[in-house]
């Protein structure tokens, strides 16, 4: 259904203002509260086109020895690799909830910091996702994630999926709706997943945000296939 546009890396790169804004806000709020050893191995899950990883996350790191961006889209990874070539920054393909994914087999060193911006709401198996993220962290490591609990656009997707005109094109609509869309208290459910994965929760909050797209074209580029 909608996956095609999200995998058009160049188009996505020009239409990710919402993701950039909220990632910047989270880094501004939490960076100074995190511990920063002299050399940090850092992972960015759901790096997309690499813009947030290279232009926002990298400059915000107080220290790092390596920064790895991973994404489930091969096209996004190839785009990021071609656009951003910086010392000790790499991009690679990864499906964080693939059945055969063994976190420490792929990354035996683990990571001091794991970040994820606007990615995890696309994953239905939240328990597995956080279990794998937890396993990637070194003792004393820290995880910072930002994603959508719910959004009006998800409601539109669901309504279109029930419409006789569009339903045949939207049989996979559940893949594009946050698993927290209809959860009364998403904070409690998220905390449960975090604790079950062995993580200690320092802060977990659901914040109401508004974002105005400058045009219908910008909205379409960010979410909907042509």
Automatic annotation (TrEMBL):
The species is Cloeon dipterum
Q: Where is the Methyltransferase domain?
A: 42-141
Q: Which residues form a coiled coil?
A: none
Database matches in InterPro entries = Methyltransf_25, SAM-dependent_MTases_sf
| CDD domains per the UniProt record, alphabetical | AdoMet_MTases
Q: Which Gene3D superfamilies match?
A: Vaccinia Virus protein VP39
Q: Which GO terms describe its molecular function?
A: polyprenyldihydroxybenzoate methyltransferase activity
Q: SUPFAM superfamilies under this entry?
A: S-adenosyl-L-methionine-dependent methyltransferases
Renumbered to this chain, the signal peptide range is none
What is the name listed in the Swiss-Prot or TrEMBL entry for this protein?
Methyltransferase domain-containing protein
Pfam families assigned? Methyltransf_25 (PF13649)
């Amino acid at each position: 259904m909608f996956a095609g546009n999200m995998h058009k890396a160049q188009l996505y790169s020009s239409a990710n203002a919402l993701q950039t804004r909220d990632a910047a806000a989270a880094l501004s709020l939490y960076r100074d509260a995190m511990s920063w050893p002299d050399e940090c191995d850092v992972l960015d899950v759901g790096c997309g086109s690499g813009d947030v990883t290279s232009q926002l996350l990298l400059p915000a790191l107080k220290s790092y020895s390596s920064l790895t961006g991973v994404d489930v889209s091969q096209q996004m990874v190839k785009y990021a690799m071609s656009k951003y070539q910086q010392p000790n920054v790499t991009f690679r393909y990864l499906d964080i909830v693939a059945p055969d994914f063994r976190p420490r087999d792929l990354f035996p060193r683990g990571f001091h910091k794991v970040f994820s911006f606007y990615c995890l709401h696309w994953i239905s198996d939240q328990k597995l996702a956080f279990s794998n993220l937890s396993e990637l962290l070194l003792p004393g490591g820290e995880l910072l994630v930002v994603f959508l609990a719910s959004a009006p656009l998800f409601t539109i997707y669901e309504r279109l999926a029930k419409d006789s005109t569009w339903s045949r094109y939207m049989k996979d609509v559940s893949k594009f709706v946050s698993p927290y869309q209809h959860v009364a208290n998403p904070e409690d459910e998220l905390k449960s997943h975090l604790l079950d994965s062995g993580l200690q929760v320092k802060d977990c909050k659901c914040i109401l945000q508004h974002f105005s797209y400058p045009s219908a074209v910008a909205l379409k580029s960010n979410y909907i296939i042509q």
